[in-house]
Design goal:
The longest helix is centred in the first third of the chain and has 10 residues. Helices cover about 10% and strands about 35% of the residues. It binds fe (ii) ion (FE2).
Length: about 130
């Protein structure tokens, strides 16, 4: 397993957050100190950034949609989304440019626990854990 994948798997066990639109949100704490992974309940130094950085999750049929309500400019933008299953399997990811919109969608392989991630070039790595 790659270091990146192992990091994601471990990091996501620390995640918590909110999801909307037919998915169940959950909150839990993990082994990481504030400042590694940001969630709704652990936004650390970015407390005022939750609304614009926490991945918003909705389900439309057999697809999960991840949106980050964040502006996009060449100096400040959302770099990437990832959808990861509860066992650490990466379902998919999307890389954004400053000209793009931070919205992505993925086919859901089945019911279970998932993690939506969003990375801002200035405000770090955010995670929303949800169950379908
Ligand atoms: Fe940001």
């Amino acid at each position: 397993m790659s270091d990146r994948r192992q990091f994601l798997k471990i990091a996501l066990t620390a995640a918590a957050g909110v999801a909307v639109g037919g998915v169940k949100a959950s909150a839990e704490t993990g082994p990481f100190p504030s400042g590694v992974v940001y969630t709704e309940s652990d936004s650390g130094m970015w407390k005022k950034k939750v609304g614009s950085h926490l991945p918003q999750v909705s389900v439309d049929g057999d697809k999960v949609i991840i949106e980050t309500r964040h502006g996009m400019s060449s100096d400040h933008y959302i770099v990437r989304h990832t959808l990861v299953a509860g066992d650490g399997t990466v379902i998919g990811s999307k890389v954004f440019t400053p000209e793009g919109k931070p919205i992505s969608s993925y086919a859901i392989p089945g019911k279970g626990c998932y993690f939506a991630t969003s990375f801002c070039n200035l405000h770090d790595f955010w995670v929303t854990k949800f169950t379908i």
